[in-house]
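Is it possible to get an amino acid sequence alongside its tokenized fold?
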Amino acid sequence: MYLYFFPLVAALLGYLANLAFTGYLFGKIIPAKMPLIASAAGRYASGQLLNMDVIAARLTDPNSLSEMRPFIEQHIDTFLKVKLKEKMPAIAMFVGDKTLDSMKGNLMEEIDILLPNLLQRYAGNLGQKINIEHALVSKINELPVSELLSKHLKKEKMLFQLFGAATGLIIGVVLGLLSLVG
């Protein structure tokens, strides 16, 4: 008669074992390893994703600069044709459209030379001021890991526990059958 309880007891033990394991994994092991995981993620992100050299190269890429050019050109055009007359009316009286166009062309040439160097230097200074790896590591370490894992892996955790129960049930049935045969 007690042989009929083998599968149920084994299923319960399998479920409880996996429940204890997932609780220990999510409650102790992963939170304890989180600083190591955060450090590795910070190194990867600062080296691969948010590398200041890569960002500076993208900013100073001729295609990126050509996208900024119309905005800069429009701003200079507005300054020379509208604001210059407001700020320096005496000079504006002696300057015609040809001169303004020439000034605009010269300014755009200087900006084309200056802007890549300025952006490169700014990105370099920003990279020195902001330690991306350290910032990412500290933010990742602030995450409530146990809560996040429990919230987002609830279904998987339950499936693992049910897998333990199913495995225990199978083992219990096999042991019950073996004891009947033997």
